[in-house]
Design brief:
4 domains; alpha+beta; single chain; eight-stranded antiparallel β-sheet; Serine Threonine Protein Phosphatase 5, Tetratricopeptide repeat; Nuclear Transport Factor 2, Chain: A
Length: 661
């Protein structure tokens, strides 16, 4: 392994044990602690050892409060450090004795310095520090997995987040509680929409001016406001986000030029050492991948009732309040149950024994069922029902609640027969959960697959108009593609496109029909390159083309890319062109990979990932790897070709360059 420097510059005055001092001669395998620097260097010998387990486990996230899995000193001896062998990265991973990953430290650009520090909980990555400009200092902080979606940018690399690139509405409400609890004006300020962001929304001159003025006033007033309120204190903890569904302010409203997604009168529930309550967060607007505030919150004690609050975009009704007499309010009983639920979730995050995990999941379902029974609001009750189903399904699939499927079936049997929407949702989740549970190492895959397809077919017959029926039909269509029964696959896809118009699933199904019927025809394909330039497949008319859908998480796709580099050279004289279509969830995942693994051809990208990227929907791509072959006349030769057949098919339509030239 080449030499690697595992080090990070953290904020002044914080985490001094990680402050980096560059330079000096160290041997790989030794831990140097100089002026608080944890540094490993690789010697370049293939047999040299990596950092010790204890040394690697000393590293901590730059940001406070990350719920990663820590290891007791006694247990650390059972863990081990492994060489990293993924994504063509170099570095190390720390794993438990049974192979559960705890940490990952990677050099993603082959400059011999670690630029990615990843932390895990129960084998799931939940946070990473990122050195995106490869200067040895972390400048991005990302929460993921079960820890949420936040993505913070640290422009001056001082260890403190300057702005949120990505943050959900729920996480904004939690940050509001934290900012009030600590009186941190800067923490609150980065939740507010900036003047430039408000202008970018193109809301019309009057609305832009009004919203910008509110946001500016909120930034100036927060410190005094936080100091003056005495309800949210240092020991207050966020519990839950509550709001009606977000709405859309359509383009053309009061001179606006773009649609705007908005939450009005959103609420953050909190608990504290002496009292709990609610914070009326107010209006939240979506700016790119982040939700933003535009005004100061309103703080309510547990027994307070909020009067009508004027919305910024919609006519407001009564906001949520904690008075039990208020039908749309949050009762004291509900808040107590939410506190219990939050306590169980904390225990679940650290539980290691299977018996403890199963017991906590059972207790969690008990609490959620009580929340369902105490909810007077229909929307709130259905939200709890869906949460119960989703969390039990996940727990069964990850093996922490073996009896969860029985609980799901019982819950399904007790649903009102008249609630067709929820009945369909629960039944589909049960089928999907049981399908995963049946896939044991000794299972007969053919029989499991046959069972799954039979259950999906029965489900579609029983719930033909449900959204889940569209998902089932897509799975049935995909199975026919695998069986190379294109006519039957097209029938399933066409049914989705016709029966569920206006949905992403219908769009993807229509794209699949277009792809499957494209053999011998020209194929329309447009998009933006990963660098942001427009692309149209007609630009390559006259040359053979391979279209290759890929993602950094798809190992088979990466192997295909190695083959494509070879074929690119072999058929260079024939003008072979390759168009890569990346379906990662974030553009930087693709660009980072391509920096370390050059693939010298056109790459397209659009947000949304495999599930909802417009590029995936254009041709109905549901699974990877996926390749199409197009001849020099622009006609499709193969609409789903395997890498093993690619060279043979290319030889039929393109003459390779002579050997030695």
């Amino acid at each position: 392994m080449p030499s690697l420097l595992l080090c990070r510059v953290a904020s002044a005055g914080r985490r001094t044990a990680q402050r980096a001092i560059w330079g000096g001669d160290f041997a790989w395998g030794s831990l140097a602690i100089a002026a608080g620097c944890l540094t490993w260097l690789a010697s370049g010998t293939a047999t040299a050892a990596g950092p010790t387990t204890a040394s690697a486990l000393q590293l901590q996230p730059v940001q406070k409060g990350v719920p990663f899995q820590e290891v007791a000193d006694a247990d650390a001896e059972q863990c081990k450090v492994e060489d990293l062998k993924e994504n063509n990265w170099t570095g190390w991973a720390v794993v438990t004795a049974d192979g559960l990953r705890l940490r990952r430290f990677a050099d993603t650009n082959d400059d011999k310095k670690i630029d990615l520090w990843c932390y895990y909980d129960q084998g799931v990555e939940i946070y990473r520090d990122v050195d995106s400009d490869f200067n040895g200092k972390a400048d991005e902080y990302r929460w993921m997995g079960t820890a949420g979606t936040r993505w913070g940018i640290d422009a001056d690399e001082d260890g403190e987040i300057d702005r949120w690139k990505q943050i959900s509405a729920e996480e904004v409400s939690a940050e509001v509680i934290a900012a009030l609890a600590t009186g941190d004006a800067k923490r609150f300020g980065r939740l507010l929409a900036s003047e430039a962001e408000i202008k970018s929304l193109q809301l019309g001159e009057e609305t832009t001016g009004r919203i910008a003025a509110k946001a500016a006033k909120a930034a100036d007033s927060f410190a005094e406001f936080a100091a003056g309120q005495k309800i949210v204190g240092p020991k207050s903890r966020w519990l839950q986000f509550a709001s009606s569904t977000p709405g859309v302010v359509p383009a053309g409203t009061q001179g606006s030029k773009k649609d705007l997604k908005v939450y009005e009168n959103a609420v953050a529930m909190f608990d504290g050492a002496e009292q709990g309550g609610q914070v009326i967060v107010g209006t939240l607007i979506q700016v790119g991948e982040a939700w933003r505030l535009i005004d100061l919150p309103q703080v309510l004690a547990a027994d307070d009732t909020a009067t009508q609050i004027t919305g910024n975009f919609f006519t407001a009704g009564m906001s949520l309040a904690s008075n039990p007499a208020n039908r749309s309010g949050i009762s004291g009983d509900t808040q107590e149950l939410v506190v219990s639920l939050e306590k169980i979730d904390r225990e679940l995050s650290t539980a290691a024994k299977p018996a403890d995990q199963a017991d906590l999941n059972r207790r969690r379902v008990d609490v959620v069922e009580k929340l369902i029974s105490t909810s007077s609001d229909t929307t709130e009750r259905e939200t709890w029902m869906r949460q119960l189903v989703d969390t039990v399904s996940v727990a069964v699939q990850n093996g922490t609640y073996p009896d969860g499927l029985v609980r799901l079936r019982k819950f399904s049997s007790e649903l009102p027969a008249t609630d067709e929407t929820l009945q369909a949702y629960v039944k589909f989740q049960i089928i999907s959960t049981e399908y995963v549970q049946k896939q044991t190492p000794d299972a007969d895959f053919a029989k499991v697959q046959e069972w799954y397809l039979t259950e999906l077919t029965k489900f579609v017959d029983e719930h033909p108009t449900s959204p889940e029926a569209a998902q089932a039909l897509l799975q049935l269509a995909l199975s026919k593609e695998f069986e190379e029964k294109e006519t039957e696959a097209i029938e399933f896809y066409a049914r989705v496109a016709k029966s569920f118009p206006g949905t992403d699933m219908a769009e993807k199904a229509a794209g699949a029909v277009r792809r499957l019927e494209s053999t011998g025809k020209s194929l329309p394909l447009q998009g933006m390159t990963i660098q942001g330039q427009p692309f149209d497949l007609t630009q390559l008319q006259g040359k053979p083309v391979v279209i290759h859908y890929w993602a950094t998480w798809c190992e088979a796709c990466k192997q295909d890319m190695k083959l494509l580099r070879q074929l690119q050279a072999k058929y260079q004289s024939a003008g072979l062109q390759i168009v890569g279509i990346n379906v990662d969830s974030a553009r930087n995942q693709a660009t980072t990979y391509l920096q370390s693994n050059p693939a010298p051809w056109i790459h397209l990208f659009e947000d949304g990932g495999l599930e909802s990227s417009g590029l995936a929907k254009q041709l109905g791509v549901q699974t990877l790897p996926m390749m199409l072959l197009i001849d020099g006349s622009g006609k499709v030769v193969a609409n789903n070709i395997h890498s093993a057949s690619l060279d043979t098919e290319l030889a039929k339509i393109a003459r390779p360059a002579p050997k030695g030239k």
